[in-house]
């Protein structure tokens, strides 16, 4: 037995003894509901897993690197690429003029040039591509883009921040506006009001495997593109379009990504296109792998946002009317910003009923990277400001923020319709909250922390609870479709292909479990192959957390078709009804008789029964009116909640997460080990967004935080010593695959509780302050110290003055 097998065996043994809180599977014979290890776990830890850059290179392979713009906004006056062409090892230098088809890789609008023409719109934009003998030589030559002799620019006025873009009315798409009721009148008539501004930073996806594509030319104008992408079908389309070819000339394949997190939903395209262009022109395989700094400089991130909000509320903190404007930094092009902004609008409510509400979302056009999908896809940006508002409301009323949250929860009957018109029919947030408050001992710890803070002058503790309600489905209804192909070979082994992509989230494991369960086979009999556009056509991105919902159902459908054919045959041979045939434990049983699965498959082959099938799934119920921003965009909601406790050092601004309790609704989990991993990972990743990860552009629009040395993602020592994560047992009200729920994105919103706990600790440091702390996100030590300073200033001088705090760096709540 080799090391890999030993690992798998050990992991499987561990999985057999169900850990605390793991669902007892409802169908005990099935591979469903069992905490099986990730299909590639052993390969991940041993380093054997093949990522795109690990694919054995064909003889003659060349390497590409990109020459990037040096200005945030400038006209290209002239280009003289001779020096680049003459650099050691350079085979060719390509510009936009070399593109035979359309010079565009935008997913929705055609505003994303692959290589810049005439004008550059952000600092870091690719202007030319160098193709060289080696990766290193290509990069050295591409670095000549920094020389004035190579590209001469005439700088133009650059707009760098969402605030400036908003002032200049520069948007990549028209503003979105959703209004229900009469919020102005409700706010005016309310006994209490808050009004304020808030800001949250962006976030780099920081997939451990960077953007990479390897293009291999094939006969008759064919191209095979290995791409690290969440969206192989779109890569196929944009490459074909760029080469002016029909789509059937191009195959895109992806076995796995080393993370995508939304960053490879649309923005893998530039890399796939440049590698393919070079491969086509030079008739040699070409690989383009961006190094980390280039990846940071070129690709878009989570949208940062600035907010203006206002709310009126009663004496219990229940919101009577609310208004918000969310100004998102879209960057230089539209990319997916329209759908991101729509999701922000549809998550402002988070878990709360808002009878009278006005929500505006702006996609601000700035001369920076084109921001894109990132886990949560605008949902976190929408819900965060609501949680900040509720925190401020509670502090103004001197209530525990928890109680204000409970007072605003969606309820039954009158209080169950979202601002966009969808009824919340599967609401379990109240019961889930009770469970978590109990297990986390929230009320008792609140009192203990007050006691601690009274005695501790420098270190202050904070505690916060926050809930999540997250809508599941692509908010563009037609994207909610998927296909799968299942092959049963003559020996009874099964190969599954589906349109989803594996990025570490465990999709292939779950789909394999579903198929194994249909045939009553152990998981070892089912293999999932690489995603390949020549197997499943016209797929959607693996995104919106829908991977297993969509592809699990499609694969289930394909397996059921084959199973029905087998059942018919075995019923003929053993007697009985096809409908009574059972597939379990590697056997097929009916009418008191049994036959091993493999034997039945062999017999079916000889009887000329088709042993492979396709399967298709389209999510029911979803519809959306993009004009009125109303409809039923989500098939269902996923819920969760967290309680976090932090300690801050009021002299240095340092902080630590001491304990986090998380309860998350993954429906009836197909694989509790994988789902717990998603919840833990999402929590820590969201915590990074709100605390340590700070993107910072210089005055001339250069992103200065473009490597791990200056951009701090959480590490294992940032996870709390006490991290209690549980799955909430709650079969999906909708008939999803085994009544599971999507789990990829929603947990990213759970660490709102960390940010709010830091706010709580800051408030505890200045008990005499009238107002809530003005804490911006990310809550870096600098931001924490700024918030403390502002609070001290406020409590010292009434009325509150903004003195000593920079205007854009504060969150200000004022009594309206
Ligand atoms: N988990 C890992 N390990 N790596 C990833 O890149 N991406 C997240 C989430 N979890 C991601 C991840 C995002 S942004 C989404 S939309 C979902 O996984 C996509 O996969 P799913 O739909 O199969 O859950
Ligand atoms: N909608 C959505 C989308 O809700 N999530 C996504 O990831 C997405 N991607 C593209 C278009 N719409
Ligand atoms: Mo995820 S942001 O939908 O790729």
TrEMBL record:
Residues 1-13 have a biased composition (Basic and acidic residues). The lineage of its organism: Bacteria, Pseudomonadati, Pseudomonadota, Betaproteobacteria, Burkholderiales. Residues 46-157 form the Aldehyde oxidase/xanthine dehydrogenase a/b hammerhead domain. The keyword Oxidoreductase applies. The gene is xdhB. Residues 1-27, 794-816 are annotated as: Disordered. The keyword Chloroplast does not apply. It comes from the Bacteria. One of its GO terms (molecular function) is xanthine dehydrogenase activity. Keywords: Molybdenum, Oxidoreductase. It comes from Paraburkholderia kirstenboschensis. It is an enzyme of class 1 (oxidoreductase). Pfam families: Ald_Xan_dh_C (PF01315), MoCoBD_1 (PF02738), MoCoBD_2 (PF20256). InterPro entries: Ald_Oxase/Xan_DH_a/b, Ald_Oxase/Xan_DH_a/b_sf, Ald_Oxase/xanthine_DH-like, AldOxase/xan_DH_MoCoBD1, AldOxase/xan_DH_MoCoBD2, AldOxase/xan_DH_Mopterin-bd_sf, Xanthine_DH_Mopterin-bd_su. PANTHER family: ALDEHYDE OXIDASE 1-RELATED (PTHR11908:SF132), XANTHINE DEHYDROGENASE (PTHR11908). This is Xanthine dehydrogenase molybdopterin binding subunit. Its EC number is 1.17.1.4.
């Amino acid at each position: 037995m080799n090391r890999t097998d030993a690992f798998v065996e050990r992991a499987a043994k561990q999985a057999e003894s169900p850990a605390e809180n793991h669902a007892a599977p409802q169908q005990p014979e099935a591979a469903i509901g069992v905490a099986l290890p990730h299909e590639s776990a052993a390969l991940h830890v041993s380093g054997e897993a093949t990522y795109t850059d690990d694919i054995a290179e064909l003889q003659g392979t060349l390497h590409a690197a990109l020459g990037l713009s040096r200005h945030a906004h400038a006209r290209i006056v002239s280009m003289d690429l001779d020096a680049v062409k003459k650099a050691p090892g350079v085979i060719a230098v390509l510009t936009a003029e070399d593109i035979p088809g359309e010079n565009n890789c935008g997913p929705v609008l055609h505003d994303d040039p692959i290589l810049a023409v005439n004008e550059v719109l952000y600092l870091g934009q690719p202007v030319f591509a160098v193709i060289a003998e080696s990766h290193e030589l290509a990069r050295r030559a591409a670095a000549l883009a920094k020389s004035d002799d190579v590209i001469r620019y005439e700088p133009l006025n650059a707009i760098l921040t969402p605030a400036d873009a908003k002032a200049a009315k520069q948007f990549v798409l028209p503003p979105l506006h959703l209004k229900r009721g009469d919020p102005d009148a409700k706010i005016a008539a309310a006994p209490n009001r808050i009004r304020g501004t808030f800001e949250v930073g962006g976030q780099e996806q920081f997939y451990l495997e960077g953007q990479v594509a390897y293009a291999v030319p094939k006969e008759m104008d064919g191209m095979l593109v290995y791409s690290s992408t969440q969206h192989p079908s779109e890569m196929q389309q944009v490459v074909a379009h760029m080469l002016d070819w029909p789509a059937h000339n191009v195959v895109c394949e992806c076995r796995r990504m080393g993370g995508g997190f939304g960053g490879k939903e649309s923005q893998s395209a530039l890399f796939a296109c440049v590698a393919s262009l070079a491969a086509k022109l030079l008739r040699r395989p070409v690989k383009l792998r961006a190094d980390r700094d280039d990846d940071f400089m070129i690709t878009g991130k989570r949208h940062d946002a600035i907010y203006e909000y206002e709310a009126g509320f009663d004496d219990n903190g229940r919101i009577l009317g609310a208004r918000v404007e969310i100004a998102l930094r879209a960057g230089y092009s539209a990319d997916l910003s329209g759908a991101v902004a729509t999701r922000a609008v549809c998550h402002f409510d988070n878990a709360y009923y808002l009878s009278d509400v006005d929500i505006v979302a702006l996609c601000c056009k700035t001369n920076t990277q084109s921001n894109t999908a990132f886990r949560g896809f605008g949902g976190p940006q929408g819900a965060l400001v609501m949680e900040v508002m509720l925190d401020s409301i509670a502090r103004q009323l001197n209530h525990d923020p928890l109680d204000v949250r409970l007072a605003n929860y969606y309820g039954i009957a009158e209080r169950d319709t979202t601002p966009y018109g969808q009824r919340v029919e599967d609401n379990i947030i109240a019961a889930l909250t009770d469970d978590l408050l109990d297990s986390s001992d929230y009320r008792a710890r609140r009192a203990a922390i007050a006691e601690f803070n009274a005695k501790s002058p420098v270190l202050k503790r904070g505690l916060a609870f926050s809930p999540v309600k997250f809508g599941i489905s692509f908010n563009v209804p037609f994207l909610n479709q998927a296909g799968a192909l299942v092959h049963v070979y003559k020996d009874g082994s099964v190969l599954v292909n589906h349109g989803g992509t594996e990025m570490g989230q465990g999709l292939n494991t779950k789909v394999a479990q579903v198929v194994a369960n249909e045939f009553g086979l152990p998981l070892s009999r089912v293999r999932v192959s690489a995603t390949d556009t020549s197997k499943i056509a016209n797929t959607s991105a693996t995104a919106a957390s829908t991977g297993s919902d969509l592809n699990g159902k499609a694969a289930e459908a394909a397996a059921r078709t084959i199973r029905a054919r087998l059942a018919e045959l075995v019923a003929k041979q053993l007697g009985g009804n096809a409908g009574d045939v059972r597939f379990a434990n590697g056997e097929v049983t009916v009418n008191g008789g049994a036959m091993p699965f493999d034997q039945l498959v062999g017999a079916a082959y000889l009887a000329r029964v088709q042993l492979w099938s396709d399967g298709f799934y389209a999510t029911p119920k979803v519809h959306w009116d993009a004009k009125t921003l109303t409809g039923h965009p989500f098939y269902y909601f996923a819920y969760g909640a967290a309680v976090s406790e932090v300690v801050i050092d009021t002299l240095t601004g340092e902080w630590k997460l001491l304990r986090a309790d998380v309860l998350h609704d993954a429906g009836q989990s197909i694989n509790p080990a994988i789902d717990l991993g998603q919840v833990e990972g999402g929590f820590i990743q969201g915590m990074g967004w709100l605390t340590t990860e700070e993107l910072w552009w210089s005055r001339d629009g250069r992103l200065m935080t473009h490597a791990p040395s200056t951009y701090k993602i959480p590490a294992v020592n940032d996870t709390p010593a006490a991290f209690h994560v549980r799955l909430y047992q709650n079969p999906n009200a909708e008939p999803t695959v085994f009544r599971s729920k999507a789990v990829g994105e929603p947990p990213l919103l759970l660490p709102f509780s960390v940010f709010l706990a830091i706010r709580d600790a800051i408030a505890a440091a200045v008990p005499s302050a009238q107002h809530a702390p003005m804490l911006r996100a990310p809550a870096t030590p600098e931001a924490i110290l700024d918030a403390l300073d502002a609070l001290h200033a406020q409590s010292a001088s009434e009325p509150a003055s903004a003195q000593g705090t920079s205007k854009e760096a504060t969150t200000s709540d004022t009594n309206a």
